[in-house]
């Protein structure tokens, strides 16, 4: 994303511009490094990084920042801790909408893993997932029935993908499909980084009676190279901040329920 495309309320000051350039050049920067380079307090750098992330110019992680990229996602560990309080609010709100004894798909993603934790107080859920982390957690509850999709396991995050995963999911029609996403483009396109993961998510959408999309505000306008579908294909969208007006107009036009979990 270029400076001209950023969603900023005011121009960057020279330090903030230099931070963006450094992150883009080096591939990451820690708060400690930026404090030493610019001779300001950690609080100042954190405010800078928050503003730059809100503007879509960087992606924050615990202790630093990385560049916005359309070809590679953050590491699994960094995604686990990125915006965790927001993910927890989203998870609680979404879980409240799921009745006991429902059947649901849960796909890959750290937001979905947070949702799985929030669902542990439910009763009698039947879950099909291609996420080993979700399966391990939810199978510990005796009244849950957990089915793990077949396929190739990705070492980096416990996700299961491949042709056999698609064939397995196509055998079912479930009440809910809970979908996470890496980015939402300004036209409402849902974007991700792994073509195989996208195909699994598309299949879940096709075989769910209701599709629930969960994504925190850092996904608004974030670039990724593989198109999953459109936000208009979902039945409800759960996020932590009001989305840009262009998204809200799409949601209203296509009768997608919006839950802002502030």
What does the model show?
The structure is a single chain. This protein is an alpha/beta fold. It has two domains: 3-68, Winged helix-like DNA-binding domain superfamily/Winged helix DNA-binding domain (Arc Repressor Mutant, subunit A, Orthogonal Bundle), CATH 1.10.10.10; 81-260, 3-Layer(aba) Sandwich (Rossmann fold). The chain has ten helices and 15 strands. It has helices spanning 14-26, 31-38, 42-54, 76-81, 84-96, 110-118, 132-138, 163-169, 195-206, 245-253, and strands at 29-30, 58-61, 64-67, 103-106, 126-129, 145-148, 152-153, 160-161, 174-180, 183-184, 189-192, 208-214, 226-230, 236-239, 257-260. The protein has a seven-stranded parallel sheet, sandwiched between helices. Strand 4 (103-106), helix 6 and strand 5 form a beta-alpha-beta unit. The longest helix has 13 residues, at 14-26. Mean pLDDT is 86; it is low at 1-6.
Radius of gyration: 19 Å
Mean pLDDT: 86
Segments where pLDDT lies below 50 for 5+ residues? 1-6
Structural class: alpha/beta
Number of domains: 2
By DSSP (H or I, 4+ residues per run), the number of helices equals 10
- Looking at the overall shape, the CATH architecture of the largest domain is 3-Layer(aba) Sandwich
Number of strands: 15
For the sheet with most strands, the description reads: 7 strands, parallel
Task: Tell me, briefly, the overall form.
Answer: globular
- Helix-strand string: HEHHEEHHEHEHEEEHEEEHEEEHE
* Distance separating the two termini: 27 Å
Strand content: 15-25%
Helix content: 25-40%
CATH class term of the largest domain: Alpha Beta
Q: Enter the CATH topology name of the largest domain.
A: Rossmann fold
Biggest sheet strand line-up: 6-5-4-9-12-14-15
């Amino acid at each position: 994303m270029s400076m001209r495309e950023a969603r900023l309320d005011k121009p960057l000051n020279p330090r903030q511009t230099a931070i963006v350039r450094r992150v883009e050049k080096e591939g990451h920067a820690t708060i400690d490094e930026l404090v030493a380079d610019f001779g300001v307090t950690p609080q100042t750098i954190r405010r800078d990084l928050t503003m730059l992330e809100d503007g879509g110019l960087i992606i924050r992680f615990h202790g630093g920042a990385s560049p916005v990229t359309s070809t590679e996602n953050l590491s699994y560990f960094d995604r686990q801790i990125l915006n965790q309080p927001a993910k927890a609010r989203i998870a609680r709100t979404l879980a409240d909408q799921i009745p006991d004894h429902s059947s649901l798909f849960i796909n890959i993603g750290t937001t979905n893993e947070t949702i799985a934790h929030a669902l542990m107080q439910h009763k009698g859920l039947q879950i099909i997932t291609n996420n080993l982390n979700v399966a391990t957690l939810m199978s510990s509850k005796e009244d849950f029935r957990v089915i793990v999709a077949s396929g190739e396991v990705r070492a980096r995050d416990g996700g299961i993908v491949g042709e056999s995963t698609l064939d397995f999911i196509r055998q079912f029609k479930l009440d809910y499909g809970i979908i996470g996403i890496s980015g939402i483009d300004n036209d409402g396109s849902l974007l991700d980084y792994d073509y195989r993961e996208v195909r699994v998510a598309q299949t879940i959408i096709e075989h769910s009676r209701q599709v629930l999309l969960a994504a925190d505000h850092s996904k608004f306008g974030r670039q990724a190279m593989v198109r999953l579908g459109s936000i208009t294909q979902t039945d409800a969208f759960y996020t932590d901040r009001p989305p840009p007006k262009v998204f809200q107009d799409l949601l209203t036009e296509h009768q997608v329920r919006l839950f802002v979990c502030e």
